[in-house]
Amino acid sequence: MSKTRRSPSLGLIVLAGGLSTRMGRDKAGLPWHDTDLLTDQLLRSQAYPFSERIIAINRPYTPHELPAKLGRTVHLVADSYPGCGPLGGLEAALHSGTSEFYLVLSVDLPFYNFAPVPDLVKLLRHQPDLLAVIPRTENKQDQPLAALYSRQLLPAVADHLQKGEYRLRRLYQAVPAAYVDESFRPALYLNINTPEAYEAAKGRDANSCRQVPVVTLTAPDSGDGKTTAATAAIAELTRRGYQVAYIKSTHHIVTRQKIGSDTDRAQKAGAVSVCLCGPADVPEGLSKEDYILALSQQQLADLVLVESRSHGPFPRIDVTQADTGTLVDDILFLTGYRSSAI
Fold first, then answer.
1. Which of 174, 189, 204 is the last residue of a domain?
2. Are residues 168 and 90 in the same domain?
3. Could you tell me which residue ranges the MobA-like NTP transferase domain spans (predicted)?
């Protein structure tokens, strides 16, 4: 008979002390859901009854936007080993904490919803010797910054830091650890390290609130290849089984669709519906961008591609800057149909 134990006390550690060198600004303070990334993550953490919440951060942070009850569970710590990456933040948090185990999260996980936590804790009950539980996503990729760690690891963490070994992988690979398959929901583990990734995450998030997701293909000038990119994307998306609607924003007065026109090309590429939107189509008092978005939500399709130089809804892809080889996958990410890394 396998031995079990009671559920250990579980705290939350948010690692927010990184230098954010690739982002070029503090990731914890990035605007997200009418607040910032760190505060939003703490608000989301209410999905699980953590015994405490420790923020490893090396600069001032005042959790004034948190409900009072949640705020009382939060306290801040600064690295004792500055400049040592996530392991330095982990050491400071484990040193100050009192829980038996911690869910350790990087601050730049905007889509993490805490749904995996109960199953991770269940493993601890059935395998009492574990000191770490590591999720794995696509291609068996470890997610050590969304994992459970025992406070018993504090001496080992300090030893690694003193020896100059800062890789978290070296820590958990040397102790009893379990690996949990999370390949069915990899979007939870998407992190944002660059301005481009941040914009992509915002676009995906915007589409999650829409009945029909939308992506605008744009370019600075006429003749830069918007229609060519759109029709190629429609053809490939259709081949993959998606129903795509196409909206063309134009500055011309719309009369009727012509053979060989952009809408005709889109229809021949497989679009299930095509629309032209000219200045005369926009109701008084409504911006063209808002009208196109409203029009997109009336389409009976899996997703809508908008072609526009300046009036398309967010998110937008500039086809002159995009990688044509990944354009379709980028569209599927922004519409929520694909969870590949940003």
1. 189
2. yes
3. 13-174
Mean pLDDT within 104-113: 96
Q: Residues within the annotated binding site?
A: 15-17, 27, 79, 108
Residue ranges for the known binding site for GTP are 15-17, 27, 79, 108
Spatial distance between the Cα atoms of 284 and 332, rounded to a whole number of angstroms: 33
**CA triple 332-187-269, angle to 5 deg:** 5
Could you tell me if 164 and 200 lie in one domain? no
Q: What residue numbers does the annotated binding site for Mg(2+) cover?
A: 108
Q: What is the pLDDT of residue 252?
A: 63
Tell me if 17 sits within 8 A of 57, measured CB to CB. yes
Kindly state whether residues 149 and 234 are assigned to the same domain.
Answer: no
pLDDT bracket for residue 1 (50, 70, 90): very low
Stretch (H or E) spanning 288: helix 288-296
Label the pairing between strands 101-106 and 132-137. unpaired
- Res. 304 pLDDT band, cuts 50 70 90: very high
Does 342 map to a domain? no
User: Sign of the C-alpha dihedral, residues 177, 180, 183, 188?
Assistant: negative
Report the C-alpha gap between 192 and 206 in whole angstroms: 16
Q: Percent of the chain at pLDDT above 70?
A: 95
- The number of distinct structural domains making up the chain is 2
Rounded Cα distance between 27 and 32, Å, is 10
List pLDDT tens digits, range 17-75. 877 788 888 899 999 999 999 999 999 999 999 999 999 998 888 877 789 999 899 99
Domain around 296: 195-335
H-run or E-run covering 36 = strand 35-36
